[in-house]
Amino acid sequence: MEAPPAGHAHWFDDEAGPVVRPYAMTRGRTSHSARHRLDLIALVVAEPAAEDPVWDLTLSPEHADILWLCRERPQSVAELAADLDLPVGVVRVLVGDLVDDELVHVTRPVPPAELPDESILREVIDGLRAL
Fold this sequence. Notes:
This protein is α+β, with helices and mostly antiparallel strands. Helix content is about 40%, strand content about 10%. The protein has 6 helices and 5 strands; from the N terminus they run E-E-H-E-H-H-E-H-H-E-H. The protein has helices at about 20-25, 55-60, 60-70, 75-85, 90-100, 120-130, and strands at about 10-15, 15-20, 45, 75, 105. Strands 4-3-5 form a 3-stranded antiparallel beta sheet. A two-stranded antiparallel sheet has the order 1-2. Strand 1 and strand 2 form a beta hairpin. Helix 3 crosses helix 5 (about 90-100). The chain is elongated.
């Protein structure tokens, strides 16, 4: 995987840490307006519209970095936070912005409560073996 665009390097100082504080990246917001619940394991997938190079010029560096990572392969919210060295809450807000702009979509795994009961699966297996 190659590095993000070189123009974003000026937003981080190795000795001082991030130049822009998290609350500034989200414009003071602590939540997003997206309809999706962004769990740590929710997968963020880039939309075809994200391939348009104009987005790299109009988005914040953090938004552009998220898009760049998601173009390679779907990324979980936790992976994005780790790769970008940002708090999860900030990543949730930024991903919510990208969802609103229809540049990414979010898929969530099936909640455990909605999975079939193990006993039902065993009965199906036993029935198939009986055939």
